[in-house]
Amino acid sequence: MRTLTQHRRMQIYGALLLLPAAALLSTFAYLPTILTAVRSVYEPGRGGRPDEFVGLENYTYLLEDPVFLQVALNNVIYAIGTIPTSIALALIMALFVNSKLPGRPFVRMAYFTPTVLPMIAAANIWLFFYAPEIGVLNKIVGALGMEERNWLGDPSTALGSVIVMTIWKEAGFFMIFYLAALQAIPPELKEAADIEGTSRWRFFWRVTFPLLMPTTLFVLINATINAVRVVDHLFILTKGGPNNATNLLLYYVYETAFSFFDQAYAATVTMTILVVLALLAVLKFGYLDRRIHYQ
Amino acid sequence: MSTTASLDNRQTSLSKAVLAYVPRLETVGAWLLALLWISPLFYAAWAAFHPPGAVAEFDITAPLTLANFADAWSQAPFARYFFNTFVMVTGIVIGQFIICTLAGFAFARFPIPGRDVLFVLVLIQLFVFPEVLLVENYGIASNLGLVDTIPGIGLPYVASAFGIFLLRQTFKTIPRELEEAARMEGCGWMGVLLKVYVPLAMPVYLAYGLVSISHHWNNFLWPLVVTNSVETRPLTVGLAVFSAPETGVNWATISAATLMVVAPLLIAFLLFQRHFVQSFMRAGIR
């Protein structure tokens, strides 16, 4: 009987420990998620009338909105443009830094430094780089005898320019996860391969790369989250322009809510981001964590 | 650098000679990439220390100057922005340590009914961030009177799923015997937490603290939405306002302002590089 009350007391104590976190998470994560979903099926009442339930009408509008379709497509291009390249570069950087390299501390610092900068500061630096007339890129391009451009002002190069900057910012961050994974590979494998005369190329593809698979998937999921979540640089570089050429989903949400004051539609666009994030969560917890060996 | 160990003894001396250059090629590649990677930052630094005219003309011979920093400092309330960021980051990290320690401890050691379901609910926040829900979070912050306050910037991040997860994992690895020993000495649950669990988790707090500081020092979108005055604006938002094209500030001054904003974290990173890199590894890999 006494152990039962002890158990009960521990339950209550535990619940109390959890309470502050539960209250904050409810206020700033669960409640806004539910409110977003609810708002996306209502039309705000005009002239003091109550909000009107419209079912999926906002979503129908979404699929007919050429700007949304362009923004969604931009985000797909942005993800495809940034993710594989950053991951490949991160892996190459990690292999470089993990080898016996002269001046290794400097090299590692150079790769990692963009990661500690705010996106806003990085964008400021790159804005300068891409500027028409006085920008460094145009000076270089001009010196090589190629055509100078307004990189961020031309719809055909703007999104690509944003992608390049993002890769620069992200690759070093993903590098450290590969570096940690590389250092965890037992050196005996390499010694055994050397004795058998396996070439370095073959060793990489047959041993190192498969062993890095959990890291690659971890980085892949994080990179995808970042592709829908981080739009800070757009505020400096392009403001989503020219003519929405670089607009991404979350920036479109911001514009819709705070420049066009259409909260119902902003909520509807937010739902598309939440769906992407939910798919990633399901992929991670429901599938990957069971398939690969995480510690 | 010896590569002979990795060579196949059946290979000819010619291919040996060729392969001997592979590491050198690698070195060249690694260094070229490193120089390419750091060059935007070097360029910004060069621009910040030279007169605006020389920057626009790429005059390498121009004299060094600190005038750009003085200009930036006097043209916008950067001192206030520094103060705001400092208060915000300190508040967030302290809040996270307290809230996540309590929740992590609860998940690690207490038989709360429905604990696993609750834990999955917490993990959802690893994917749903306050800034993604910015429209509704703005409404909520507004109802709570938090708009344009420093707690308004920080509160949505305080109950961090990441912190709860990290500390729960750490607390679970701590042997129960240590806890028993403290109980024998008459410690209550809070005593056990503060005297056994927290000290043993110190490296995790350090790692999590560094990751959290650099994240919130650099965070932009939610602070942009929730602040609208000099008294609350953090550095990132202040820098964005300062360098908006409408203000007509020149490149050299913007570079100086950018370097100023970046400097504290960058210097800390350069001094404690190993700690930073290890913290990010530790926190990310779990």
CATH architecture of the domain at 102-285 in chain B: Orthogonal Bundle
**Major sheet strand order of chain A:** 1-2
Shape of chain B: globular
CATH superfamily label of the domain at 102-285 in chain B = MetI-like
Q: What is the average per-residue confidence, as pLDDT of chain A, rounded to a whole number?
A: 85
Count of strand segments of chain B:
0
Question: What count of domains describes the coordinates of chain A?
Answer: 1
Largest interface: A-B, 100 and 101 residues
- List unreliable stretches of 5+ residues of chain A: none
Helix fraction of chain B, binned, reads: over 70%
Largest sheet of chain B: none
Shape of chain A: flat
Please tell me how large the radius of gyration of chain A is.
25 Å
CATH topology of the domain at 102-285 in chain B, by name, is MetI-like fold
Count of alpha and pi helical runs of chain B = 16
Number of helices of chain A: 13
- Looking at the overall shape, the CATH architecture of chain A is Orthogonal Bundle
Please outline the major beta sheet of chain A: 2 strands, antiparallel
How are the secondary structure elements laid out?
The complex is a heterodimer of chains A (295) and B (286).
Chain A lengths: L1 H38 L2 E2 L8 E2 L3 H8 L1 H33 L5 H13 L2 H12 L5 H8 L11 H29 L3 H9 L4 H12 L1 H17 L2 H6 L11 H10 L4 H29 L4
Antiparallel strand pairs in A: 1-2
Helix pairs in contact in A: 1-13, 3-7, 3-10, 4-7, 7-10, 10-13, 12-13
Chain B lengths: L12 H7 L2 H27 L3 H6 L9 H9 L2 H32 L5 H10 L9 H10 L6 H9 L2 H12 L3 H9 L4 H12 L1 H17 L2 H6 L8 H8 L8 H21 L1 H13 L1
Helix pairs in contact in B: 2-15, 4-15, 5-8, 5-9, 5-12, 5-14, 10-11, 12-16, 14-15, 15-16
